[in-house]
Specification:
This protein has 380 residues and is an alpha/beta fold. It has two domains: 172 residues, Rossmann fold (3-Layer(aba) Sandwich), CATH 3.40.50.1970; 184 residues, Dehydroquinate synthase-like, alpha domain (Up-down Bundle). It contains 16 helices and eleven strands. Strands 1, 2, 3, 4, 5, 6 and 9 form a seven-stranded parallel beta sheet that branches. Strands 7-8 form a two-stranded antiparallel ribbon. The protein binds nicotinamide-adenine-dinucleotide and zinc ion. Zinc ion binds next to α13.
């Protein structure tokens, strides 16, 4: 017998800044130059189309930015591609891989991805398979990407009717959260990421949960200071979990950061992308928190505080899809439990709050209680 044991250490920084491509902003240049061993650094930038449209002149700004940087070559003008949930499929992947491979990038080069969570997932997946992985720098442009999806170690696209069914675990080289991008978000995407903050707060930080509830009105009214504070704390809790939980690549079955997500992923797919990820997470949190109350894990008043706060922010804790039946007359949402179980590897692990700021894993879900939760949301 030959035994092999391999340990690979990963580390990356998450920076918070404004106007990342302004010539005076050195954050990105410093990140790239921090890589040792090679004198010239090559970089290819992929940008979500919406960003190029809403921020006219940004491509020229990026070209000027890299011209002003010593030892960094932008291998072509920024490549503009469609983003959003609809772009998160295999059609784009072949094209992205062809461009990356055809741009003569090597594994020491950089791919810089500018966009929302869906775009980061799609381009990040392609970057993780070309040459078995090119270093990626994520520049997240939505609240949800800045506080949750962009700071983690996963990517993925939707295939076979399932969310994120194809993807890899690939830590980024670095992440830059540029708050100035958030100004152009529509109201739905402005609040969407706040649901992820409630998710992580409910299972990890009761004080943060209460702060979120107290500031619900500020999130709705686009208070930038509150939003930026929320993004930082949420990103910190998220990355803290990945770095310290002992299972960053999810070899085990526990998925605390997927609290509220079994139904959220199903709802998103059932709505064919019409319900945003964060909007679905808000509904998923309400369902699973109701469940936790019924199981004696959470106080009714904490559930009420959660739902009132989410609604005050502007979330609608309802979708008619919750009552949609399949051909056998069963609620379609329930197949989200089976899909979640399959994704985990056969055994169901659902995280629920166990009091505020703490969590517990359960291995089965009682459909009768979920049905009551759905009825409760429908009656509200
Ligand atoms: N990889 C992970 O670990 C992980 C974790 C959580 C969520 N996700 C994924 O992230 C995605 C959700 O991310 P999202 O909420 O950012 O959605 P998104 O990327 O679909 O962006 C939402 C909308 O905002 C637009 N947009 C992006 N930046 C903008 C800006 N600055 N101004 C105006 N509009 C802008 C997009 O074009 C899109 O229409 C889902 O696909 C979800 O599955 C991944
Ligand atoms: Zn999520």
């Amino acid at each position: 017998m030959i035994k092999a044991r391999i340990s690979v250490g990963y580390g990356y920084e998450i920076h918070f800044t404004r106007s990342v491509f302004s010539i005076r902003n050195s954050v990105l240049k410093k990140i790239i130059s921090s890589r040792e061993g090679k004198r010239r650094h090559e970089i290819l930038v992929f940008m979500e189309k919406k960003i190029a449209t809403l921020h006219p002149g940004i491509s020229d700004e990026i070209i000027r930015y890299f011209k002003s940087a010593e030892n960094i070559s932008l291998v072509s003008a920024p490549l503009v591609m469609p983003g959003g949930e609809g772009g998160k499929n295999f059609k784009l992947i072949e094209n992205l891989c062809r461009i990356m491979a055809g741009s003569h990038l090597c594994r020491q080069s950089f791919i810089c991805i500018v966009g929302g969570g869906a775009f980061l997932d799609t381009v990040g997946f392609a970057a993780s398979i070309v040459h078995r992985g090119i270093r990626q720098i994520r520049i997240s442009t939505t609240v949800l990407a800045q506080n949750d999806s962009g700071v983690g170690v996963k990517n993925g696209i939707n295939m076979f009717g399932m969310k994120n069914s194809i993807g890899t675990f690939t830590p980024p080289f670095a992440v830059i959260n540029d708050f100035s991008f958030l100004d152009t978000l529509g109201q739905r995407d402005w609040i969407s990421g706040v649901a992820e903050a409630f998710k992580v707060a409910m299972i990890k930080d009761a004080g943060f949960f209460r702060w979120l509830c107290r500031n619900a009105g500020k999130f709705k009214s686009r208070d930038k200071a509150a939003m930026e504070k929320m993004v930082r704390r949420c990103a910190e809790l998220h990355v803290g979990h990945i770095a310290k939980s002992g299972d960053p690549f999810e070899f085990g079955s526990a998925r605390p950061l997927d609290f509220g997500h079994w139904s959220a992923h199903k709802l998103e797919m059932m709505s064919a992308g019409k319900i945003r990820h964060g909007e679905a997470v808000a509904i998923g949190l309400a369902l699973d928190s109701f469940y936790a109350v019924e199981k004696g894990l959470l106080r009714q008043k904490d559930f009420d505080l959660l739902t009132v706060s989410l609604e005050r922010i502007g979330f609608r804790l309802w979708s008619d899809l919750l009552l949609k039946k399949d051909r056998r007359g069963r609620l379609e949402i329930f197949s989200g439990i089976r899909e979640f179980r399959e994704h985990l590897g056969g055994e169901l692990h659902v995280t629920l709050p166990n009091g505020l700021g703490r969590k517990i894993e359960v291995n089965e879900l009682d459909e009768e209680i979920i049905l009551n939760a759905i009825r409760h949301l429908g009656d509200k």
